[in-house]
Each structure stands twice: as C-alpha cells, then as structure tokens.
From TrEMBL:
Annotated SUPFAM superfamilies: CoA-dependent acyltransferases (SSF52777)
Domain O-acyltransferase WSD1-like N-terminal: start-end pairs: 5-270
The organism's place on the tree of life at top rank: Bacteria
Sequence ranges assigned to domain O-acyltransferase WSD1 C-terminal in this UniProt record: 318-464
Species the sequence originates in: Amycolatopsis carbonis
Keywords for the protein's UniProt record, in alphabetical order: Acyltransferase, Glycerol metabolism, Lipid biosynthesis, Lipid metabolism, Transferase
Catalytic activity, as annotated: an acyl-CoA + a 1,2-diacyl-sn-glycerol = a triacyl-sn-glycerol + CoA
Pfam families: WS_DGAT_C, WS_DGAT_cat
GO biological process: biological process involved in interaction with host; glycerol metabolic process; response to hypoxia; response to nitric oxide; triglyceride biosynthetic process
One term of GO molecular function: diacylglycerol O-acyltransferase activity
EC number: 2.3.1.20
Name of the protein in question: Diacylglycerol O-acyltransferase
Family: Belongs to the long-chain O-acyltransferase family.
Cellular component terms per the entry's GO annotation: plasma membrane
Amino acid sequence: MPDRLSALDASFLYVEDHATPMHVGGVAIFERPRSGFDYAHLLDLVGSRLPFLPRYRQRVLDVPGHLARPVWVDDVDFDLNYHVRRSALPQPGTDEQLFDLVARLMSRRLAPERPLWEAYFVEGLAGDRVALVTKTHQSVVDGIGTIDLGQLILDDAPAPPEPYEDTWTPRREPSRAQLVFDAVSEAVQRPGELVENVRSATNDALTSVGKVAETLGDVASTLRTVVNPAPQGPLNVRVSGGRLFSVVRTRLEDYRKIRAEHGGTVNDVILTAITGALREWLLSRGVNLTSTATVRALVPMAVRDEETAEYSTPALVGNQVAAYLVDLPVGEPNPVLRLQHVGHAMAEHLDSGRSVAARGLLKVSGFAPATLHSLGARAGGSLSGRIFNLMITNSPGPQEPVYAGEAKLIEMFPVMPLMRTQALAIGVTSYHGGVYFGLNGDRKAAFDVDLLGGMIEEALEELKGAHW
C-alpha cells in the first residue's frame, strides 16, 4: 500500500504560497565547548539520528491527475549536505544580525521536490556561540510517526557525536502507472474521495482549509465560538512574503513570583504579559480600545488521552493537541484584573480534565518543545484565520541543561508560521530558568515587532510591581 499523505498533511501543501510558507522554525543558540563544535560535528550528529526519522529522507510525490492525495517516497537523491547547511555572520556577529538572517530564511518556501526540512549551522556569533536554525514543514511532524528534528538531536548529557556513515538504501520510486493504479484501486472502494481529491488540489486555499476543518474532529470540537469572527484590527491584514523576527528573554522565577502573589498558573502570567503588550501596541497604532475590547488568541494545548497512561508519550503527542480560543482582555487597564480574566478563561479548558499542565509535560520521556510547537502549528494552520487574531504556543522545556553533542544549549526560540491574514505569531519556550519568546511578524504589517517585544518586558515588570 502507498504511504499516502493524510487529508490534513496534504492541505498544508495545497494552501501554501509564496506569502505563507507552511513550515515551523526554531532557533537554538549553543555555547561552543573547548573540544569544539563545528559543521562536521553537526553533520555527524544529524546523520546518526536520521534512521530514527525516516520521514526526513522522504519527499512528496504527486499522483497524476490528482486522482489521489500525494504519497511519501524515499528520496533516491537524498543529500544530507543540502539539508544541513553552513552559514556565518559578518563581524561582530550580533544577535540582531542572527535574527535578521532567521527572518530571511523563514520567508523562503522549502523546495517541494526534496524532503521538507532544512537546518542551518550559523557561525560567527559573538561570545564564541553558534546557532542552529531549523525549518520543518507542517506536513512532516505528526507527533506519532515523526517528531521534530530538534527533539532528537538534544541529549541530557554531553557526548561527542558518532561518525556518520551513509549506509541507507532508498526504496525504488513508484512509476506513474503504479501511482495511477493505486489511486484507481482506492477510488473503487471509496468513489466519493476521487472527486474530493481533485477538488482539493485545484480549488483555492480557502476551500481547501474548509475541507480540512471537517477532518479535525477532536480539535474542531474544542472551539466554542467558531461561528463568531474574531475582532478586526491591525493584526489581521493580507500578509506579504517578508518577515521580521524578534525575541524576548525573561526569567521563569519572575512568573513564579507573580503566580504566588496573584494566583493562576505560569502560563496565565505569560498570556497576561502578552495581553498587556498587545494593549500598548494597539494603542501605539491609534486603535481606540474600549474597556471590553479583546484580541482572540488560538492557544494550542496538549491534552491527555483518557484511554492511555496519564503522562505517557502516546497520550500527549500526536493529534491530541487541542486548539483553544482565548479572548485576551486588551481593553482592561489594570494588570491584575487582566491576569484574573485570563486565568478564568484558561481554567475553563483545564477544568475539562484533559488539558495537560506543564508539570505533566515535563514527565514525558523524550519531550522537547520543538515537537509540541510543530503540533500546535498544525492545529492552528488547519482552522480558518477568520475566527482568531493570532496564534500563541507555549511549551515548557527542561529546567536542566541539554546538549547537541558536547555543545550546551543556552537559549531556544520558536518561530511560528503566519497565516494568510494574520500578521503576527508568538511562540514561547521555557528552558533552564529562562522563558524565551519568538515573535514572527509580517515585514509590512508588523514592521514594529521589536517594539512589541519591548512591551512584553514592560508588561511583565508592570505585573511584578502590581498590588491588588
């Protein structure tokens, strides 16, 4: 039987265009060890882990006439050096130069005729640091058969990577005749699917997304306000092909102190800091905010499968990522009241008994934020952008150091994709005492994304100094 893309995975290919590439990114910054960590080390590390990620050596092959969804086939010309690339920053190698490079890399689509991922080893960062920038298409990481590359190359202890020897033998690519035969055979059993496959591949993106929404089941059922469009404003415009990327670095202890003072969860405090920043950003854009004004965020959250173990990997990964809509109270001037509003909205989801708290996620063997950010993007990308203003993913990471080979990870920043009419996406990851924000903005509509990043820091300081 052919390894055919699911309807959801195929939709991410159908809706993609030059302005909305459908990949999830990540920026990991490492401290170079005394023993060294260079491009050759990274090639050995990634190459030695590829046997655990067979999808990363496969490409998408279309079926003639779109008689069926595309299939995954082994890339007979797979070239690790093509996918793992080398780059360097000009002196002095500042963070600003790195994030400008990230924005340019993330604005480019992945080559559809090759396996849908890339990694860039970036040298020249000040302070003897190196960075790894990854791009993975949303059709690749499903959390069941395939996890994110960032999850597999990080280990709990430093160790030199094993030398990579390419002994992989790809399977022969099916012929056009075989692809057609398989498609016709399936159509005989499910004749209605033939019409849907042709329609999905040829209609516009909105039609494709609408079809995919029908396949979501578990995700779509969590949305209580699907029929109500999101409030309109500067966050929702037709995006261009350019991107700007900015980051915010904060300390986890600050969120814990605010939680202890005012209640809620660390996630509530993070969302409240973002709410305060969005309030100031909208005011700076001249938006007139009433006291009841809101911005609707799609907040993907891992959920438990009640039929499996409480904190096992199969119970938390895969399609068990629910897309919750949260109305952020940007019209509320009091930071403590904003926190209470956010906490109340999130409590409704947590009270369902299926949402997983951060402490539960951290018990999952092999957990890495990269995979859950990818799964969150899948959940958000499969829904109509008309029902929310922006996507915010937050995945807790390990609070002990992790390593790529012998290089210690210092910081990690997610890069979430933009939808066709959404100018901003925010990813948040906590790691080793820090909370790191990655802000991906449209270069035209969110030209002041750096300003928004500074406002997140100010909103956090406001919460730290707030008293009831």
